[in-house]
Amino acid sequence: MVWNIIKLTLAMPVLLALLASQPASAVGYPFEFSTDAKMTYGSETAIEKAYGLMTVVTDKNGDGIINVMFSNGSRSTSARFNARVKFLDDSGAVIREENFDHWLAAAEFDEAIEGKVTKAMTLADFESIEVDFYLSHVSGLDKAAASNAVDTRVSNVKNYYNN
Q1: What is the tally of structural domains in the chain?
Q2: Which residue(s) pair with 139 in the sheet?
Q3: Could you tell me the residue range of the domain that residue 63 belongs to?
Q4: pLDDT, tens digit, for every residue of 99-148?
Q5: Sheet of 78-88, strands arranged across
Q6: DSSP letter at 22?
Q7: pTM of the predicted model, to two decimals?
Q8: For the residues of 34-81, what is the DSSP string, one character each?
């Protein structure tokens, strides 16, 4: 319990800073991009306190990392949190796609459950990034909502350019 409080205390400033930042455009030749999205099921119902965060950082050679973080603050819903990160060329064609997923249980009484997936990557010749955050295998919903919740998606990011 104490360790969880320490982790949460240390992670919150970073997490809040990432949430407060809107998608960032590239700064010089190291490319840096970050975004977040509320997680939804059905066509418009957001799951309380559930979101995904994604950052991509590359150097001038295209070497870098993709970090995808998920947080579930809902005490009644557990789900598989997913992100599909697409790298596009200047014509809009997908030249590389990375998929991330992480199962998160329902939140504990006073804190969210969080997970992070990181992949190293090398890709220098992309023009933009598109991200789809979505939930699958949702539990804790009523039957009508659950039938609409399998593999639902919210696509919130398009056309963030690698300058």
Answers
A1: 1
A2: 78
A3: 2-161
A4: 998 888 888 777 888 889 999 999 888 888 888 887 777 776 544 444 44
A5: 94-104, 78-88, 128-139, 152-161
A6: P
A7: 0.64
A8: EEEEEEEETTTEEEEEEEEEEEEEE-TTSEEEEEEEEEE--SS-EEEE
